[in-house]
Each structure stands twice: as structure tokens, then as C-alpha cells.
């Protein structure tokens, strides 16, 4: 039966339900707070691959250790270690242009072992990319680098010819390689192994700037021997190969450096024979220098070479010089003087040359003797000179 509450009647069942709900809410409020739900476990991410520099640095830490091992053992160990280091070539060069800055840093690092620097330079030269040129050039130009390292750089530079930045980018040309090699000669303290390598390369194509070569040649002395002679020989070849008038001017000036009769002078004569165009262009200075050198020569070998060089100047004013040597005691010198008269077109010398030919039978200079047969080649050269003058 329902209760009466004032004028309102509340059903008993509803009253019981409300009372139970109040008790439950009170219990919840008095209860201890519950622990938060655990966070979801993190999924481990894969480690990032090493950068090219990290890879190279790790490899060269091993190479440094191997190089240190080489320093304390015999030749067999050195050979074995070199073979081990060679195994790193593929992983290093396989990184391509990205490896260039890292390898360059190692090659230029003065604290690093020299052999490690050499390996870095070697690996650099095997990467087929234009950017390799700059660090190799920098090693050659580094005055503080060991001589063997600079020598290796000089030998590697020509191998970089044709490397390009990309399909349409800049490329390493023969001209820039030559310029890099020749510019290193400005270092007056260039160590011997590097100097020899640079001169060897320069002797094949020359250097546009002849000044450093002249300085080195004079530094080797006026009677160079051994390595100095070999280096002087290469330097003169470099002047010979150069296609510039200054290089020929240097060759002419060097007659003041090498004494008459010396092999240095003979080498200068040979060099000038490869520069006929330059000698003609430098007629005003070449004529007096070669005339002076000719008159100072102590024997027929030098005289013949000097006459040949003077003839290539093609200066008609030299006619009297050549005519004088028609009376030399040596038949080869006489023949070369006749050839010189023909070369400069001295037709006024025809009567003297014909008189010489007419008197050959009784001329003791052209007779056979105990030391030689009759100089037929010399006689033939005189006849050719006369024929040439008549044909002009």
C-alpha cells in the first residue's frame, strides 16, 4: 500500500531504488582512486643507416690500425696488410661523389699517418666524378704534405682527365691538369719525388709559364750530374714542348748558363731544332745569341749543332757567319755551313760553294785517312746545298 507524504504519494519500490543508488554513489566517492591504465608499449624503430662519412671514418680507423701494424713488421707483413686494405676499395669508392669530402679530409689531415693519407688519396682517384680533381690538386699544392704524397697526387691528376660533374656539367680537361701540375713548380721547395713526377709529366706537353722551369734549371747547376741532370733534362724537354714564345726565350737565355761544349748546351741546340717557327719569330734575339754560342764551341760536334740551329732562324744577315765555316777543318762542319747558306737563301755564296766542289778531289779535308773513310755524306750535303740555291 503506498505511503502518503503530505499530499504526494511515493511508491515503495521507487523509494528503495533511490536509496540503493545513494548508497552506491557514497561508496564510490569513499573508495581509493584507481591506477591509470598502462601506456601502450613503444614499437622499436630500425636504426638509421650510417652516413657516407661515418662509414669512411669507421673504415679508416681500421686502416690506421693496419698501417700501425705495418710500421712494426717485415716486408711480408706489409704486403699482407696492403692486400687487406685493398679490400676496402669497393665499399669506399662505391659511395661515389658522397665520399669525396670525407676522403679529402683524411688525405689533407697532417695528424693522420702518411700511409693512411696515401690510401685516402688513392681511393679518391678511383671515384669517377669531377669533384675529385680539387682535393687531388690541393694535396699536390700542399707545401706541408710529405713528398711521396705530393708525388702520388701528381701521378693521379692525369688519370682524372674526362671526369665530369654530370652528363652536362663541367669536365676535367687536359688543360686544367697541365695548369695544376705546372703551377706546383712555383713551390721552390717542392720535394724531390714530387718534383721528378711533375717534371716527368710536364716534359710531355710543356708549361705555359716558363719562369719556374728556368729557375729550377739554373738551380740544378751548370754541370748537373745524377738526379740533377735527369731533372734538368726533363725541364728542358718541358720548355721544348711548350707552344709559347717565352719558353723559347728561356732556352736562348740558358746558353748563358751552360758552358760551351757542355752537354747542357747540346741539349739546348736539340731543343731549338723543334722550334723553327719560334726561332724565326725571335730572329732579332736568336741570331746574336746563336752566333755567339757557335763561335764559343770548342769542337765540331757543338759547331755542327749550332750551325743547324742558326740556319733555322733563316736570317740572311747570317750569311757571313756560314761562309766563314766553309773553311773549317772538319768536313761535317763545312757541309753544315753550306746547308745553312742554302737555308737562308744566300745565292751570293754559289760561286764559293761551286769552287769548293771543284776542288774536292785535292782537298785533304775530304780525303779518306786512317781515322775515317771519305766523308761522302758531307760531300753530298754540299752538292744538295748548291742545287737548292740554284733552284731558289
Task: Kindly describe this structure.
The structure is a single chain. The chain has 392 residues and is mainly alpha-helical. Among the domains are: 51-127, no CATH class; 318-392. 61% of the residues lie in helices and 2% in strands. The protein has helices at residues 12-30, 52-70, 75-86, 89-93, 100-107, 114-125, 133-141, 147-156, 174-183, 192-205, 211-219, 226-241, 245-253, 263-273, 276-281, 283-296, 300-313, 319-324, 331-343, 350-358, 376-391; strands at 3-5, 8-10. Strands 1-2 form a two-stranded antiparallel ribbon. Strand 1 (3-5) and strand 2 (8-10) form a beta hairpin. Helix 5 runs antiparallel to helix 6. The longest helix has 19 residues, at 12-30. The N and C termini lie far apart (159 Å).
Low-confidence stretches: 1-19
Helix count equals 21
**Tally of DSSP β-strands:** 2
Topology order in helix (H) and strand (E) letters: EEHHHHHHHHHHHHHHHHHHHHH
Q: Record the strand order, biggest sheet.
A: 1-2
Cα Rg: 44 Å
Strand content: under 5%
Summarize the structure.
With 392 residues, the protein is mostly helical. Helix content is 61%, strand content 2%. The chain is built from 21 helices and two strands.
Keywords:
21 helices, 61% helix, mainly alpha, disordered N terminus, 2 strands
Amino acid at each position: 500500500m503506498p505511503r502518503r507524504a503530505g499530499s504526494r504519494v511515493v511508491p515503495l519500490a521507487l523509494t528503495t531504488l533511490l536509496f540503493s543508488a545513494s548508497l552506491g554513489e557514497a561508496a564510490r566517492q569513499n573508495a581509493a582512486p584507481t591506477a591509470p591504465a598502462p601506456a601502450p608499449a613503444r614499437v622499436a624503430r630500425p636504426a638509421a643507416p650510417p652516413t657516407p662519412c661515418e662509414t669512411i671514418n669507421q673504415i679508416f680507423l681500421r686502416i690506421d690500425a693496419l698501417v700501425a701494424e705495418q710500421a712494426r713488421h717485415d716486408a711480408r707483413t706489409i704486403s699482407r696488410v696492403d692486400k687487406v686494405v685493398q679490400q676496402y676499395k669497393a665499399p669506399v669508392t662505391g659511395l661515389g661523389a658522397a665520399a669525396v669530402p670525407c676522403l679529402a679530409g683524411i688525405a689533407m689531415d697532417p695528424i693522420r699517418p702518411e700511409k693512411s693519407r696515401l690510401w685516402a688519396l688513392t681511393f679518391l682517384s678511383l671515384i669517377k666524378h669531377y669533384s675529385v680533381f680539387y682535393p687531388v690538386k690541393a694535396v699536390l699544392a700542399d707545401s706541408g704534405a710529405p713528398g711521396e704524397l705530393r708525388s702520388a697526387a701528381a701521378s693521379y691528376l692525369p688519370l682524372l682527365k674526362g671526369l665530369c660533374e654530370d652528363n652536362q656539367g663541367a669536365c676535367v680537361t687536359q688543360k686544367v691538369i697541365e695548369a695544376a701540375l705546372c703551377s706546383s713548380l712555383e713551390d721552390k721547395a717542392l720535394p724531390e719525388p714530387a718534383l721528378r713526377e711533375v717534371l716527368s709529366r710536364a716534359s710531355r706537353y710543356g708549361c705555359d709559364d716558363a719562369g719556374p722551369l728556368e729557375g729550377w734549371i739554373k738551380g740544378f747547376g751548370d754541370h748537373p750530374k745524377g738526379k740533377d741532370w735527369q731533372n734538368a733534362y726533363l725541364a728542358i724537354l718541358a720548355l721544348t714542348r711548350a707552344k709559347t714564345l717565352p719558353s723559347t726565350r728561356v732556352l736562348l737565355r740558358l746558353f748563358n748558363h751552360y758552358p760551351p761544349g757542355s752537354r747542357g748546351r747540346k741539349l739546348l741546340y736539340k731543343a731549338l731544332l723543334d722550334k723553327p717557327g719560334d726561332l724565326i719569330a725571335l730572329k732579332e734575339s736568336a741570331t746574336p745569341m746563336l752566333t755567339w754560342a757557335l763561335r764559343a764551341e770548342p769542337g765540331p760536334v757543338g759547331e755542327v749543332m749550332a750551325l743547324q740551329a742558326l740556319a733555322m732562324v733563316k736570317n740572311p744577315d747570317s750569311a757571313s757567319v756560314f761562309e766563314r765555316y766553309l773553311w773549317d777543318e772538319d768536313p761535317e762542319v763545312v757541309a753544315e755551313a753550306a746547308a745553312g747558306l742554302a737555308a737562308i737563301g744566300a745565292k751570293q755564296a754559289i760561286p764559293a760553294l761551286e769552287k769548293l766542289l771543284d776542288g774536292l778531289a785535292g782537298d785533304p779535308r775530304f780525303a779518306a785517312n786512317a781515322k775515317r773513310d771519305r766523308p761522302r755524306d758531307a760531300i753530298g750535303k754540299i752538292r744538295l746545298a748548291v742545287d737548292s740555291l740554284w733552284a731558289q
